[in-house]
Amino acid sequence: MFKELKKKSNMKKLILLSVLAFVVSSCGYEIRKNPEPPKPKLTKEQIRKQEYEQRLKDYDVQFLFECNGVKVYRFIDGSELIYFTDANGMTYHQYTTRTSKFSHTTHRVQSINTKR
Asked: Which one, out of 30, 42, 57, 63, has a CA that is 20 to 30 A from the CA of 16?
């Protein structure tokens, strides 16, 4: 008899606990995370640097060397090797095209870099 009462008591506890768990889970309680702190505002120079680094990631840019504080990079555009620097001033690259079966033309492209 004592065992039957104990089983009924345990069964009542189990049912009560199940009902309580269902009520708590369905009441729409939401755990709120602490709001993220606002991101610090970036200067124009920092924004330019981030954009520059993102553009480097978009291409397979290889760092070649540094001389007098000027870094030289290279990437492939189609079948052409393109070289560029991070310095301000005059830069150029050249490429050759075939104009006929026995002749070719060398093109020299020049640009002037200025700070923005």
From this structure: 30
**CA–CA dist 66, 73 (Å, integer):** 9
Bridge partners of 73, per DSSP, are 63, 84
Indicate the residue type of 31: I
What CA–CA distance (Å, rounded) separates 86 from 94?
A: 18
Question: What is the enclosing helix (H) or strand (E) of 90?
Answer: strand 89-98
Burial letters for 57-78: b for 16+ Cβ neighbours within 10 Å, e otherwise? Answer: eeeeeeeeeeeeeeeebeeeee
User: In Å, what is the CA distance from 27 to each residue of 23, 32, 90?
Assistant: 6, 15, 68
What pLDDT shows up at residue 24?
65
